[in-house]
Amino acid sequence: MALSVADRAIGAIIGAAVADAAAQPMHWIYSPDRLKEVLSDLEPCPEFRPQSANPFYRRTTGEQTCYGDQAYVLLESLSQCGDLTKRIYKFFGPGTVYDLPLNDPYRKKGGPKVILPIDGPWRNGSLKAFFRNVDAGKEETGCDVDCQMDGVTKLAPVVAMFAGKPEMLEKVEKAMRVTQNNDMCVAMTLAAARFLEHFILNGPDPNALNTVLAQLNDPKRQNPQELDRAVTGKALVVYSFRNLKKQLWEISLPGAFQGALHGVLTLNQLDEAVRDTMRCGGCTASRSSFIGACFGAQTGLQGIPESWRKRTLRYPLLLELAENVVKKSQQ
């Protein structure tokens, strides 16, 4: 039975969340020796490690990273038509599981040494800047210096809702600038959104890269960015150097995006691609979430392993919200 656009849109949202949860226990392992040691006990299936090996923070296996949580808040906001800024502040703010001493947006450098890993989730740099900007009453709440993968990791709900509509890229940019007001991040996120939209609308396509590059080079393209040419160069690097996956020891853009795109363009299924990127260490979760979104968009739910869905603790709620968002997009 052929998949509908709605099926693929739901698959994109769920694929991103499931892949993020699968990689979460092995997120941010940068030591090659430690990574080798951890993998030796898990191969050939490193996903959903029962005990966290994350050297910075620890969450229960099946929970999301801060990337997956941001995507969830965005999905919930789209489903319920809420104010995204207020929702992010409430979800990650005072009195929540993120409200830990190390995560304090006003914590001064040089203070008492923190023992890592912390017992709880990690509030990253862009979120800390977001809180400071909101508290200061600034109209632009996004961090203008942070260049991490947050935008790419949380775009699936927005692309799923607006795929095929002329305002899709504008909606993605608006959502991501709430926490990241950085032009390179925006350009890279919009390029990622073009890839994901293409898979939602068309399914698997070996020419996806050429299609997106043509869009980025079109002088009449939607939502043009000054850095689109630079993004095009990064995408071509991925295509030209297929061994790029062996060099992923960087969590910031553009490196993490290139690594994620490598998995999307060179591998054949979600679990295979997520496992492959997990074996590279570093920011496994951010790369995995985009990989999961793109493969979910190509295959729908049927291409996302059922055992992975069951081990993602928020899956039933995610599915309900995803179905609601996609239904709203068709009205």
From TrEMBL:
<comment type="similarity">
    <text>Belongs to the ADP-ribosylglycohydrolase family.</text>
</comment>
<protein>
    <recommendedName>
        <fullName>Selenoprotein J</fullName>
    </recommendedName>
</protein>
<keyword id="KW-0460">Magnesium</keyword>
<dbReference type="InterPro" id="IPR005502">
    <property type="entry name" value="Ribosyl_crysJ1"/>
</dbReference>
<keyword id="KW-0479">Metal-binding</keyword>
<dbReference type="Pfam" id="PF03747">
    <property type="entry name" value="ADP_ribosyl_GH"/>
</dbReference>
<dbReference type="InterPro" id="IPR036705">
    <property type="entry name" value="Ribosyl_crysJ1_sf"/>
</dbReference>
<feature type="binding site">
    <location>
        <position position="286"/>
    </location>
    <ligand>
        <name>Mg(2+)</name>
    </ligand>
</feature>
<dbReference type="GO" id="GO:0046872">
    <property type="term" value="F:metal ion binding"/>
</dbReference>
<dbReference type="InterPro" id="IPR050792">
    <property type="entry name" value="ADP-ribosylglycohydrolase"/>
</dbReference>
